[in-house]
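[INFO] parsing input record for Glycogen debranching enzyme
[DEBUG] input buffer:
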Amino acid sequence: MIDIHFGPQVCGDLTSAASREWLVPDGLGGYAMGTAAGLRTRRYHGLLVVPGETPASRQVGLVSLDPAVTLPSGARVRLGAHEWSSGDVDPRGFELLERFDLVDGLPRWRWRIGAVVIERELAMLPGRSCVAVVHRLVAGGPVRLELSAACTWRDAHGERRADGPTPQVESVADGAVVEGAYRLAGPGWTPEGQWWLGVHHREEANRGLQPDEDLWYAGRFAGELERPGDTVSVRAWAGQLDLEPGPAEGIVATARRRNRQVVATAKPADDVEATLALAADAFVVRTNDTAADVVAGYPWFGAWSRDTMISYEGLFLCTGRADLGRALLRSYAATLSEGMLANTADTGRVEYNTVDGTLWFLHAVSRHVTVTGDTDLGDELLPALRAVIDAHVAGTRYGIAVDPADGLLTQGAPGTALTWMDARVYGVPVTPRTGKPVEVNALWINGLAGLAELAELAGQDADELWRRHRQATASFRERFPAPTGWLHDVLDAPAPAYPLGGAALHDDDALRPNQLLAWSLPFAPLEPDETTLRRIAGGLLTPLGPRSLAPDAPEFVGRHRGGPADRDGGYHQGTVWPWLLGPYVDAAHRGKMSVDDVFVGIEAHLTEYGLGSVSETADGVAPHAATGCPFQAWSVAELLRVRRKGQ
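[DEBUG] output buffer:
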């Protein structure tokens, strides 16, 4: 894997070190997460974040273990880091960091206090909500190490205050049980019990959200580090509290072995691919012994069907997980209703509110069968997939229907945003894209052809599917090219002066990246034209991927910043989306264009934000600072997929 490490000049600069985040997942949707500086900058950061009934319904438990070293001289040196609502940063342990490393996906800190060097490693036990934190004396000593446990028990999206109930902490033989929900275990436990008031999260402040909370100082662990190699370790776990995990050092070793095996199974061609293979692993979560799902992004997303299906080939087929992917496709097929795939919302409700999620599902099944030769799955799902086509032809929810005049797919209803550009501000869609969106119809044409092939593999008649495919393809080629030299983004859209359902329609020729799917998909309706692709790249391409809107558009928003309304307003109005690099590279490959230089910026990004991973979004203007989730499934999956495809 690529070498990710920082020395004292990065670690000791809070702005730099606190903007580089690490993630250690538990395989269930929970995680440990923080920054290279050791400073918590988000309400979502913690050492034990526990998944609920769904991956999105997480609870923050153990927040931090703040180390303090007592030297032979009697001096006490604190190695933790907290920012307070007053603006103070205290303690400032990051100033004593001489190195931070990400080794096999696991973070490691190394503090130097003169001749004394102490190292911290942490890992989660794969498949269990359990974190192990190991502190090791590397040089110097003897010293005494204390670890102050800051705790809470709250929804990951909120905060907890001292004016509410005091957390219930019950001391047990080797530590404590907090709120009956999780257990802490380690040496020399001493109960304390007081509020730390006004802990500040700078990233929440930047996002226009409540940035402050109060933490409960539950107590401290302590042990002697007499000679190099001695350790003081703490474990924390949720679930079966009486089922004690193994030693902390063993948990770290187990996690390291597993991560190495994940990488080996993916058979990476180089260090970047190895890094992406391990990054992909974070998003694949087990829902039971045989089934899996996909977390769209950390730290705040759960499972979303569109994200899952766009990510499918990269996360499952490029990493040696075809069997697990097969089970996922079967479980998602069971959610089909009126020809639409369920979109499992982070609210916990099952919703049917996308026009493209189902079409991406058709694509995922087709790719699975094509890549693996698993025709049994194709045969099994074929009736359900045919029903999808029939429902779209007849018409289903939200005005989703095939226009009999041209065979293209139209969609839209008041107040909805059904494509992937689905942001709303105060409930009003920013980009409703009512009508016939370009990528939706590219996916429709691709789905018809993919399903026709599956039908023929099963020995079934596919004439009607191919007839619809020919009609839609001919209409696409006739209608989508725009006088501007690229493709219309939406056909038959309500004119701006008319409400949905009004008399006037127009064709939207805004320069957006959605058209890339018209050249990139396996059964794309168009053959790439180098002149057109270069024109699109000139307006949209950045080092981290394509912008969602060209900078010369009146609606362009260059920085994805501010409060929720500001961020949602710019989400698809110029913000860069790294996942779109996948369709761009596919289209360029088909157009015989060189893409040797297109990965340079995004590969460098692997050490800049979410360490070893790819962010959800980035600003549309230089320096294209990353925004959104630091760890995003489709960003990682698409980069891994097209890099492997180009090998």
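[INFO] The chain has a mean pLDDT of 96.
[INFO] shutting down worker
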